[in-house]
Amino acid sequence: MNERETGPGERGVPTELTLEGLRQRLVDFAAARRWEPYHTPKNLAAALSVEAGELLEIFQWLTPEQAAAVMSDPERAHRVRDEVADVLAYLVQFCTAVGVDPLEALAAKIERNEHRFPVPGGAADVNPDAG
Amino acid sequence: MNERETGPGERGVPTELTLEGLRQRLVDFAAARRWEPYHTPKNLAAALSVEAGELLEIFQWLTPEQAAAVMSDPERAHRVRDEVADVLAYLVQFCTAVGVDPLEALAAKIERNEHRFPVPGGAADVNPDAG
Amino acid sequence: MNERETGPGERGVPTELTLEGLRQRLVDFAAARRWEPYHTPKNLAAALSVEAGELLEIFQWLTPEQAAAVMSDPERAHRVRDEVADVLAYLVQFCTAVGVDPLEALAAKIERNEHRFPVPGGAADVNPDAG
Amino acid sequence: MNERETGPGERGVPTELTLEGLRQRLVDFAAARRWEPYHTPKNLAAALSVEAGELLEIFQWLTPEQAAAVMSDPERAHRVRDEVADVLAYLVQFCTAVGVDPLEALAAKIERNEHRFPVPGGAADVNPDAG
After folding, report:
1. Residues of C whose CB is below 8 A from A38
2. pLDDT band at B64 (very low <50, low <70, confident <90, very high)
3. How far apart are CA D41 and CA D31, in angstroms?
4. What does the alpha-carbon distance between residue A121 and residue A108 come to, in Å, rounded to a whole number?
């Protein structure tokens, strides 16, 4: 991506690629189209779940081996990037609607998980569900 | 990860809060616990979908009004932050597993949507599904 | 599958519409197309979740009022029936793969819930989550 | 609900186990607890998706081999039956709320799929997604 394409295309000023920068673009995007009334916390949580399902759909019939090679198929690779973007967009918009900073939330969760799942001697036996 | 980047709470050195910084902490976290074998693209896509469902669960019986006030209930507010963190964690780990930059994917999607959904004169009638 | 069980619309012999009758048609359908290798418990649980997301997608931007009237829109009504069918199909196929009778499972759950949620004097305050 | 339909375990009168019989018990269960106001189509579609996610959660970190043996672990087997029941309960309640007969919907979908996916000579290559 060269500088002309780096950002929203306004005045040729490149945007640094940060979550906050993209969040602001999503806010502007929705405002320009008057979509805010639809962007309630409940609707956005539903939309996030729907898009996560669409990402999973790509993998549902794949063997572990096929799934590991998913990005070597250009059509599947495009779908993966597209669904990743949708999930992230709705997550960011949900966070905006409820006033949560997703990076702070994740940092706090990692802290909690570091206490909840101490590094074991025999880590291989540990339940991997860090949720 | 060098010591300066090890994260908040350790040695009192604050880490700048970026998605890339958190991504690296998640990579280290999983590696220290030997969880990488579980972190296949298919498993992570499933886990992401499961966590998005857990976020939605908070809202499933709430009226739009109750949902809008979700953060004024401390227990619900904690659950919201916790599930946001889980969704973001699995999204970032999924992206690591398939080699996708989520910020680039989202920037590209916003570009596409700006063409797909031009700002209309009467935007209020437009279907809000930007997916 | 003998002729009497062949299904509605074929030779004019009606089939009694039961979950077990439909289950058998789904088994035969998959076998005729050699899809059984794909129909592992894990894949079918993923597919079920994906289809439940597609059903939810119909409702994600609707107000409660619009959602209540969903069947008065012929196109949406068709989508609703189609996604209901997909959810039920994958649920039944999942149950076949793991050897669970879904009707027995539901009957047992209702029994448990009747003890877990006794009919209260002031039922309106009770948490509605019977899951 | 008359005594003959009261359900297994009550007064020793067995109920024939049918989807319609269970549907009626779910209707009575919700009515006795005054939960109908929560049981809107949108809420029930969300709840169905959430429960499908909980079923998937059981499998998310399992290898295909572990997943195939899921019912040999009594605790996992109980969770599977429990989540199957929740998915079916919310599907049936959703169908009641929108006035759809799930068995008719599935029968019609199988008819459509029989035309959409004719039995091929070399069926093994066919995309298994009958959704």
Report:
1. 61
2. confident
3. 16
4. 25
Count Cβ atoms within 10 A of the Cβ of residue B46 and give its class: 0-12 exposed, 13-18 middle, 19 or more buried.
buried
Rounded CA-CA distance B52/B38 in Å is: 19
Helix (H) / strand (E) containing D11 = none
Contacts of A121 (CB under 8 A, 6+ apart): none
C41 Cβ partners below 8 Å, 6+ apart?
A: C94, C97, C98, D59, D67, D68, D70
Element (H, E) at C103: helix C102-116
Gap between the Cα atoms of A29 and B65, Å rounded? 25
**Rounded (5°) CA angle D82-D85-D87:** 110
Place of tokens 């994740």: A106
- What does the block give as tokens for A28? 């502007």
User: pLDDT at position C12, please?
Assistant: 47
- The reported pTM is 0.85
A17 contact residues in B (CB cutoff 8 A): 103-104, 107
Q: Can you tell me the distance from the alpha carbon of D105 to that of C84, in angstroms, rounded to the nearest whole number?
A: 7
Residue C11, Cβ density class (10 Å: 0-12 exposed, 13-18 middle, ≥19 buried): exposed
DSSP-assigned states of every residue in B88-125: HHHHHHHHHHHT--HHHHHHHHHHHHHHHSPPPTTGGG
Q: Are D80 and D70 within 8 A, CB to CB? A: yes
D61 touches chain A (CB under 8 A): yes
Nearest by CB to A81, which of B49, B86, B100? B100
Burial of B118 (0-12, 13-18, 19+ CB in 10 A): exposed
Q: Angle B74-98/B41-59 helices, nearest 10 degrees? A: 160
Joined together, the tokens standing for residue D73 give 């672990």
Q: How far is D73 from chain C (nearest CA, A)?
A: 12
Q: Distance (Å, rounded) from C-alpha B30 to C-alpha B36? A: 6
C-alpha C30: how far from its chain's center? 17
Strands (E), chain B: none
If one counts every other C-beta atom within 10 angstroms of the C-beta of residue C4, the result is: 10
Instruction: Give the mean pLDDT of D104-111.
Output: 97
Separation CA B84–CA B76 (nearest Å): 12
Q: For residues C89 and C97, is the Cβ–Cβ distance under 8 A?
A: no
> Is C48–D87 a contact, with Cβ atoms under 8 angstroms apart?
yes
Distance separating alpha carbons of residues C83 and C52, to the nearest angstrom? 7
**pLDDT digits 0-9 by tens, A34-73:** 999 999 999 999 999 999 999 999 999 999 899 999 999 9
Distances (CA, A) of B59 to A48, A95, B77, D38: 13, 14, 12, 12
